[in-house]
Input
Amino acid sequence: MRLALIRYWEQIRSGFWFLPSLMAVTAVVLSTATVSLDRAGVDRWLDARGWLYAGGAEGAAAVLGAVAGSMITIAGVVFSLTLVALSQASSQFGPRLLRNFMRDTANQIVLGAFVSTFLYCLLVLRTIRRGDEGIFVPHLSVTAGVFMAVASIGVLIYFIHHVSISIQADQVISRVHAELLHAIDRLYPEDVGLEPGETTETATEATAASSTSVVAVRAESDGYVQLIDSSTLLQVAVEKDLIVHVVKRPGDYAIRQSPLLHVGPRDNVDDDVKARLAKLFVLGDERTPPQDAKYLIDQLVEVALRALSPGVNDPFTALTCIDRLTSGLCRAAARAFPSPYRSDSDGRLRVVTPAATFAGLLSAAFAPIDEFGGESKLIVARLNQGLRAIVAACRNDARQAEVEDLSRKLKFVERGISPD
Output
């Protein structure tokens, strides 16, 4: 249930419909409330103080009609500008970064403001009565509609400013970098778990013993592993007296009927247990960042590689990506990565996961950029600068050795290209 909620929340955040729909529903409620207050005579009390629209039914209908018509027209313009920004971002930075634009709350609020103002005025307009129907002019509601229209003008001015800067390379890279830092803080908190290399002999022996009699839990569909409910996985392993070997980590692609888990001993595993364990994996059509920090690193690397391509030839954008990657890796270098071994309260090994290592993040960040930009002295100098900063941020000698080992494997070192 928890995994489903996380997945749905991620889909809602990545969609462009939720906030505008919520604001539209709010407009319906607001129109009902203000018209009810008008019918209750509250408008007469406020009108005595000169705060409300004082015109007749024809004037009120004209005002609301003008506001509604202009709002839906501007909403169309906003939608068109958003599509243009998405198209340009896709061609310049890569289609995978569209998710960041779709999650931009400001764009959703702007579109929702115009749609909700249009809907509010339309609903209030239908309550105006004149002639044989009896006269009813919702003065309070019309005044609220005018205020909403004025506020929408301010939203439009903000949107023009926001959309003009949201497609700038530095802003796009900054948003991905902020999300990367948040993912590192969430996935690798300070002093949590053992380092991957700090395993005990007991864990090693239990792993070897359990590998002799295991059952594979296979994927029910194709897709990327987006989420794994690790806490429930440990709970099931304790409940059924199992040792679970996780084969796929978040971000890996699973082919239908390929193993997700190896579970042992075989005698403790039946079809119900296999089905229960399979449901602890959420597969989807794309990678997502909640449990996959490497996905955000890959996004920054993709922007850098596009900038270094001959068709774009924008090394300064690549330099910005290297700086942001260095910043994220410096934060990760000071964190303890959780151990791949999970034990129960009695200290018995229950779950073995693929080890997430700092060296893996470091290689994913710098190796592809070196592959495509290692002949540029500008890129080489910034890579060296980044590696030195990461070495300084490492929390122990083992981390420093990982950075130094990678630096010896980079192609510009092998080619003897000097960064100076």
Notes: Residues 5 and 11 are 10 Å apart (CA to CA). The chain has three domains: 2-167, 201-284, 290-340+355-414. The first strand starts at residue 215 and ends at 218. The two ends are 56 Å apart (CA to CA).
